[in-house]
Amino acid sequence: MVFERDPDGPPGVLEVGDELEIRIRFSGDARVRVVHADTCSLTLATLSGHPEAGRITFGAYRNGDGDVAFHIRSRARSSSLFSYIGFLAGGNPMQTTTWTDFVNAVGATCGAGVRGEVQAVTQLPESVQLDEGDTRMDRPTFIARGD
Fold first, then answer.
1. pLDDT digits (tens, 9 = 90+) for 24-78
2. Is 111 helix (H, G, I), strand (E, B) or coil?
3. Would you say 73 and 141 are in contact if contact means Cβ atoms under 8 Å apart?
4. What pTM, to 2 d.p., does this model score?
5. pLDDT of residue 93
6. Measured between alpha carbons, how far is 102 from 49 in angstroms, rounded to an integer?
7. Which residue ranges form the domains of the chain, and what is each CATH number?
8. Which of 45, 98, 108, 144 is deepest in the core (most CB within 10 A)?
9. Comparing C-alpha atoms, which of 58, 36, 45 is closest to residue 134?
10. Which residues, 6 or more positions from 40, have their beta carbon under 8 angstroms from its beta carbon?
C-alpha cells in the first residue's frame, strides 16, 4: 500500500482536510481525508470509491514502562458486496500483513524496532452502525494518551 499526498497541496505536516491518494494492491487507487490530527495521532476517513467505508487512527504514546506504544485502530466495513467478497477471498490476511509490515517499519525507523510481536485483533463493535452518514466520522477511533 502506498500513500501519496497531492503534489499541488500544501507542504508540511498533514492537517485536517488534507487528502491522500492510496494505491492498494489488487484494489486500485482510492482516497482518504484527514479528519483528526493531534500531537499523538492521525485519523483518516475513506472517501467515495475506497473499497472500505470508515476511518482509521494511527497513534503513538509512551506506556507505563516508558516505551513507545504504536497502535492502529480501524472502524470500517466493506463499501460494496464486491469489496466484501474480495476481503473474504484474501483481503483480510493481506490487510493484516500490510499493517504488520507498516508497524514493523515504524519501529525500525524510530530506531529500536518492535519489542515482541505485532498483535492484530479483529472484533465486531458492540453497536454495529453504518459509517456512511455517521456524524462521528470526524472523530478518532481511539485517543492516544498512554496507559
1. 877 788 999 999 999 999 999 999 988 888 899 998 888 888 888 888 888 888 8
2. coil
3. yes
4. 0.81
5. 79
6. 23
7. 2-138 (3.30.530)
8. 45
9. 45
10. 59, 60, 61, 144, 145
